[in-house]
Design brief:
The protein has about 160 residues and is mainly α. The protein contains 6 helices and no strands. It is about 65% helix and about 0% strand. The termini are far apart.
Length: about 160
């Protein structure tokens, strides 16, 4: 690093955030923006992209004016677990359903931490989060996301005959 950058960790974090935000903003430009009262499909992605860019710029600014730690190593296991969790959610949400996709997302995301313990508290939190997401997004907002996807529909039929 150069002598001007006093916090390399903030520098690289800011650079990544600005890059991701700029890329997201560029992708969102193809969608209609709308207004605050009548949001178009590009409204929310653009707002989030601008927020991400702003956070990145603050981090970049801090990199030049505050003393920070150097980047020692990149923790690839947590990084791959988080990315894998998001990819798994995207692949499972319409095939296995929201419930299974969220369970996989939460478990993989939590397993990325070395402090994660699969105990009663974790199970309770996971069930509560899945129930809240199902209630808000499927029932409350009416999003067309199946709670139980086509992969598990035959299983529901078998379970129904066991009663």
């Amino acid at each position: 690093m150069t002598r001007w950058i006093t916090s390399p960790r903030d520098f690289w974090t800011g650079l990544i955030y600005v890059g991701l935000g700029a890329g997201s903003l560029w992708l969102a430009l193809g969608y209609k923006f709308g207004t605050v009262g009548r949001m178009g499909p590009g409204y929310f992605p653009r707002v989030l992209a601008v927020i991400l860019i702003a956070i990145g710029l603050v981090s970049l600014f801090r990199a030049f004016f505050s003393k920070g730690e150097p980047v020692t190593h990149i923790a690839f296991k947590p990084l791959l677990m988080i990315v894998g969790a998001i990819v798994a959610y995207g692949l499972l949400v319409h095939t296995a359903g929201l419930i299974v996709a969220l369970l996989v997302l939460i478990l993989m995301g939590a397993a990325a931490s070395s402090q994660f313990r699969f105990d009663v508290k974790a199970i309770f939190g996971m069930v509560l989060l899945v129930a809240a997401c199902s209630a808000v997004f499927v029932k409350g907002l009416g999003l067309p996301i199946p709670l139980v996807g086509p992969w598990l529909q035959p299983l529901l039929g078998v379970l129904g005959t066991l009663r």
